[in-house]
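User: Batch of two.

Assistant: Item 1 of 2:
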Amino acid sequence: MQRRWAPVVAGSALVVAGSSVAGLYSFRGDVPVVFVGFCLFVAGYFVARDGWAVLSPFEYALGGVESSVRTEHPLIRGGLGLVGIFGIAAGVTQFSLTVVDPSVAGAVRAGVYSVGGYAWTHVVIHQSLF
């Protein structure tokens, strides 16, 4: 298999940009901007890994999946994935705010949002928790 470098470079640039936006704006408490940063990060990850086909939800179908949590339609999976990414964004933002102003309740919220969002997104993307 020949490796195409354009999607790797473009995807890596999105990963860097998205993670930078998410990291910087999380300390401001700006969850919507952190969410956009994480969306860029995830898009970049998939573009770098799988190429340009991931940008077309109809060309990028998950094949060979067997699970009780099966969501075939790529737009539905994408929408459900965004819910989880929002949870991750809320958790990372809460964690950053807890670093600035420590609190046990804030740390617990950060963990619940982050781990819950990650688990949700992992199930949606991979159709499996593990």
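Item 2 of 2:
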Amino acid sequence: MMVQSPLKKHDIRPNLRKMPLPDQKSSSGKQAKHTAKSAAKVGLPKIKPWKVILGSVIIGIFGLFYLTHVFSTQRLLEEVQTLEAEYNRARAQYDELKLRYDRMVGPAEIYRKAEEQGFINGGPADKVIIIKE
């Protein structure tokens, strides 16, 4: 909370740029000139050349960063695609070797090798056993 002393007077400078309200008529020609002069100045604000140059340099720096980012992203994408192609080749080779291995140790191959060695096929395991009394 701000407390001010009522005894202390604040020195406030008067407003030197008093403009007459639009509905009021100015009494002196000097004020009419001032109003017409300020009305002519209404428009685009003046921009200093150093601000334009600074803005151009900043936009150029951001553009350079953007282009660098785009090119590095493209390079990384090419690297990812190369690694993905390599992975797909390795995966295809793995699948082919796994299929070959499964055929070598699969039941049909084991039965064929067992018959070559002289074993007799016992047939299905769920045969019905008949007991004679």
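Helices lie at 29-40, 49-105, 107-116.
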